[in-house]
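Can you please make up a whole protein chain along with its backbone structure tokens because I've never seen that pairing?
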Amino acid sequence: MKPDILSLVVSVGFSLLQLGFLALLAPFFSWWVEEGGDFLAGRSVRPFSLAFRRIWGFSLLALRQGLSASWGVAMAMGALVALALPGLAPCVSGGAGIQGGPMPAGVWARLSGDMAALTSVLAQGWVPSVWLSDPLFLGLLLLAATAFLGTGRSTAARQRASLGGAVLVLCVTESLFVLAAPGVTGLDGVRYLLHEGANPGLSGTSACCGLALAFTGAFPRLNAFHKGDEGSGEEELGIIRQIFDERASLLSFLQIGWLLYLGDLLLPGLSGETPGMALLAFLGRLGGALGLLLVLEATRTERNARLAALMAGLAFLLALSGRFAA
């Protein structure tokens, strides 16, 4: 087998392992997103096992019958975002992440005796995260996946306003990254620059942009979908409940993608030198994003345009300071 083909097989296998790992984490984090606020406040919540039963039933149904076109596109977008984000890489990738350069030509020849070379290949993954980890591109994919999933009629107008605000924040994020670190390519390049300590203002800029995005209320939640929005009549209750459960299961996969994206924005410098430390950093970023959402829910600020504008302005000031300091 040629080295290029074997490299592709290894990368595809590693990407599938990544998706499988995220699929195991999805019900846990989705339960905390939906029920964590009520649980911490001492109110009654749905059982934790319900999220796992929903996803298990949804997976079996998807394997037997497939998905509708819109839901299939939404799930594919979520998977692409998860694979392209640098937060899933085993360690900090090399300097190619700054300008998006290709993987060194001699890496495969040294794989058999050099573990660092193996890590370099796995960090690239099957999806070229150097180019696809652009924050605007990934954010728009998540917003499009959320739109493909649909929404309840009673919350459609509010959801459209949140998505519009999120698009503005994503455009500002892209512009501020260019201002703070000209030539940087995506979140992968941002993480490498912070790892090297080359731009002190970039971390604050990224964190403020993540806060601004969280304040737009674009993060998809199950309460945006109501069983009563799908139809009426007692004979339709079984179909309505099945559609609701399937949508809730697909939403949990999108939510883990959103948490990964927010975590990479909020804590871009949190990374590990070894696979063990990288795993802890990965869980730390997910936990940080989840904690922020729970705080916003508790303070009822998960949809606040003024705070989003304030965070965007603060990010602009930090980007200017980082540019001049560099």
Notes: The mean pLDDT is 75. The first helix runs from residue 3 to 40. DSSP finds 13 helices and no strands in the chain.
